[in-house]
Amino acid sequence: MEINIPAVRAEVEAAFRRYETALMENDITVLDELFWKSPETIRYGPQETLYGFAEIASFRQARDVGDIARDLIRTAITTYGTDHAIAFTEYRRRSNGRTGRQSQTRVRMPEGWRVVAAHVSLGPPAEPDTLTSREV
Q1: pTM (2 decimals)?
Q2: 15 phi, psi to nearest 5 deg
Q3: What integer pLDDT is reported at residue 133 of this predicted model?
Q4: CATH T-level topology, domain 6-126
Q5: Distance CA 19, CA 24 (A)
């Protein structure tokens, strides 16, 4: 098995960027498109445990998007052969500096790369001296 075939990795990186853009814009249509529409799809979050695409889609419709703006700190994407990949990223919330982690397992389906499993966690609240200032 080949690891990180350049063309395959580029496809997964593009899918990851598309997901991140959709997340920041709360584009539910694209977010739903990028998850596998199956009862086997799983998403664990900071406050929720979701089994199956239907639960994930319902969560997206109802979630509070008031604090979703974030900056990615470090992202690692690894592909395994031509049809499997993982994407891990650490991020920092812009509003309060809180850090989090996101992991996704992606599989190439006939309709394209889809998230089949995901996990999101948040770290403890940021200490005031760790927040960075931003120019407006």
Answers
A1: 0.88
A2: -65, -40
A3: 45
A4: Nuclear Transport Factor 2; Chain: A, (3.10.450)
A5: 9
